[in-house]
Amino acid sequence: MAEACPYPFPRPSALGIPERIAGIHSEPLVPVVLPSGDQAVLLTRYQDVRRVLTDDRLSRNLNRPGAARISRHNSMFQDPRINPDPPEHTRVRNLVARAFTAVRVQRLEPQIHAVVKELLDAMESSGGPVDLNEALAFPLPVRVICSLLGVPDEDVALFRRWTSAFLSVSHFPPEEIRAAMAEMSSYMAEHISHRREHPGDDLVSAMIRARDEDGRLSEYELQWWCRLLLLVGYETTATQLGGGVAMLLSHPEQLRRLREEPTLLPNAIEELLRWKIVGSSVSMLRYATDDIELDGYTIRKGTSVIPGADCANQDPEQFSDPESFDITRSENSHLTFSLGPHFCIGASLARAELRIATEALLKRFPTLRLTVPADELKRVEGALLEGFTEIPVTW
Ligand code: HEM
After folding, report:
1. What is the best residue among 51, 61, 337, 356 to mutate for testing ligand 1's pocket, by most ligand atoms within 8 Å of CB?
2. Among residues 107, 110, 355, 380, which is most buried (max CB within 10 A)?
3. For residue 205, how far is its CA from the centre of ligand 1 (angstroms)?
4. What's the whole-model pTM score?
5. pLDDT (average), residues 343-371
6. pLDDT band at 165 (very low <50, low <70, confident <90, very high)
């Protein structure tokens, strides 16, 4: 096997696909070094990535000796109180999924429209230029998650402060991150106990009610899932939304086509998702609990494995002309939301936010444009989530 190279791979520009990905599919398993310095192998081919994501010999539980770590800080998947593997994970996840219904997402749509309108009104009256991150991409998902969890509007600012401490584009010292985590955990504990006394129509109340033959979610599981929803549902959506708009603005032909034919919007959203603007697949790290035979090679027991959705989305065996960004692409079963037992629970919510916000923004600002050349946009360096430092636009 070739020498291990650092992963996530460097990008030629903030919106460009890493050069290392072109042609990587000739090697099904690529040795990589993670930001922690630990080694893993990256799975590159679409069909292999699909297969392993539904194989229960590839564990999400990284809390075991010999498993690689993504970073030196503990990840949520190293919490010994939570088993992120089936069958325990499946039981708990089903309880959450039961509360996180399609109907609940549909009921959120009018609210997403209202928040988008309010944010675009403020953007318009500012006269521009604005940073699209601050004007729309970040405030929208945090407002939506707070509303989903039943957090009152006046506390949304607290959530933005906590999430920017441990997630967002600015860097904070570790003690500030720990303090933000602790403050948020105690807020959540209080919120959950308040909802026990005064149930509402929100997801937390529904999660408290959800039960199966083995009982309800424990207090700790409830808190863990609330934190997870916020952590994984916020910056992902913000980065995909802001970066997606920047991608459209920097492809004028595609943008013109979309403006002329607005019914292409759902297709365009899927193509932007295939582009995996949110970043690499490092957070999908797994551990092989047994030998796994794939097409002509074996993943050995004890190997740390990254199912490379970023590579799979660019596999020419699956996508014709994968390196071209094409909003008319009709067959587009990308793996950006993963697959199998950990398939993104918020995928339909994320799609609704992306669709509603992108449509309203393009309609409201027919002359929207970046104020800097697209290749001058910057990603946050050294962070696990590859957000954009800013996305300056005017109209
Ligand atoms: C564009 C936006 C988003 C992207 C690209 C994204 C991507 C992902 C991916 C790749 C996974 C699975 C990771 C794995 O297999 O290891 C995942 C899991 C998850 N996502 Fe999302 N996500 C997005 C938005 C959201 C939103 C809005 C929510 C909820 C508010 C959410 C909630 C979750 C949860 C709870 C999980 C864990 C599921 C489990 O482990 O069973 N995500 N997401």
Report:
1. 337
2. 380
3. 21
4. 0.94
5. 97
6. confident
Per DSSP, the residues of 52-70 read HHT-TTEE----STT---S
Does the N-terminal peptide bond of residue 373 adopt cis geometry, omega within 30 degrees of 0? Answer: no
| pLDDT at residue 91 in the model | 85
**CA of 124 relative to ligand 1 center, distance in Å:** 31
pLDDT in tens, 211-249: 766 778 888 888 888 888 887 888 899 999 999 999 999
Q: Is the pLDDT of residue 379 over 80?
A: yes
- What CATH architecture does domain 5-394 belong to? Orthogonal Bundle (1.10)
Average pLDDT value over all residues in the chain: 90
Nearest CA to ligand 1 atom 43: 344
Write out the two tokens for 35: 């930001």
Those residues whose C-beta lies under 8 Å from the C-beta of residue 123, and which sit 6 or more positions away, are 130, 135, 136
The residues near 154 (Cβ < 8 Å, ≥ 6 apart) are none
Using the mean position of ligand 1's atoms as its centre, give its distance from the Cα of residue 14 in Å: 22
Q: In the chain, what is the straight-line distance between the N-terminal and C-terminal CA atoms, in Å?
A: 51
Residues with CB under 6 A from ligand 1: 93, 145, 228-229, 232-233, 236-237, 240, 278, 284, 336-338, 342, 344-346, 349-350
In 44-190, at which residue ranges do the beta strands (DSSP E only) sit?
A: 58-59, 130-131
272 CA distance to ligand 1 middle (Å): 16
pLDDT at 83: 79
Structure token pair of residue 296: 């002509």
